Amino acid sequence: MNKKRKLIIAGNWKMNKTVAEGLALVSDLKIDLANVKEVDIVVCPPFTALESVSKAVLDSNLRLGAQNMSEHNFGAFTGEICAGMLKEFSVRYVILGHSERRQYQKESDALISKKALAVHGASLKPIVCVGELLAEREAGQTEKVLEKQVRGSLVGLNKDQMVETIIAYEPVWAIGTGKTATTQQAQDAHAFIRGLLGKLFGEAVAKKVRVQYGGSVKPSNARELMSQPDVDGALVGGASLEARSFADIVKNSI
Ligand code: PEP
Known about the structure:
Blueprint: E1 7-12, H1 19-32, E2 39-44, H2 47-57, E3 62-66, H3 83-87, E4 93-96, H4 99-104, H5 109-121, E5 125-130, H6 134-138, H7 142-153, H8 159-163, E6 166-169, H9 183-201, H10 203-208, E7 210-214, H11 219-226, E8 233-236, H12 243-253
Parallel strand pairs: 1-2, 1-8, 2-3, 3-4, 4-5, 5-6, 6-7, 7-8
Helix pairs in contact: 1-2, 1-12, 5-7, 7-9, 11-12
Phosphoenolpyruvate binds at residues 12, 170, 175-176, 214-217, 235-239.
């Protein structure tokens, strides 16, 4: 496949994997994916496994991501983790505004944009998640919801920061449900997001931004999704918890 933007495929382990389990998973991935150069491959373990996994991936083509980060740099914020702490473990990417955090932690677009600025302030790359609920899609509100989330979650970013930002389009109804958006639904949403980025940051920036698809990505549907012109990778939940399926998603995407 000949796309100008390099694919980025990230595994979001969510609240899964002890240190020992995470190490076993990356040990298998390192072997399976050792020769892959065409894709940026990212694993996002829970905070407790970052240090160990960080050491394990040092000599590999796997990169490390975190699943969340505070918008603050330090201080009295019990239970939070800041950029400086992530940088100690060579984290490069931070997932922000995942639908589970929007739902359970009530994260707003405004908060996500502050976090995105903090991520860039530390020279890390945010993966900003957006996506509509099933009821919103059925009510014909998908583009309206995406526009609100994209605009609100990227407030204050400059063009250089936007180029280094990854957007993950994750229709909420497809996350962990086994239902995948059709390739056309995914492409339409990605094209809409890229068009909006063009209006907000200029065409040249929009052409460079990588937009991942997320929502029940599996080895069997990865190739078709990645073949869409505006789909530049995947954010993978369930299928990233097993080496075989995550490695096959990466290999099938090339
Ligand atoms: C996710 O949580 O980001 C996700 C896409 O999960 P799944 O692949 O399990 O649908």
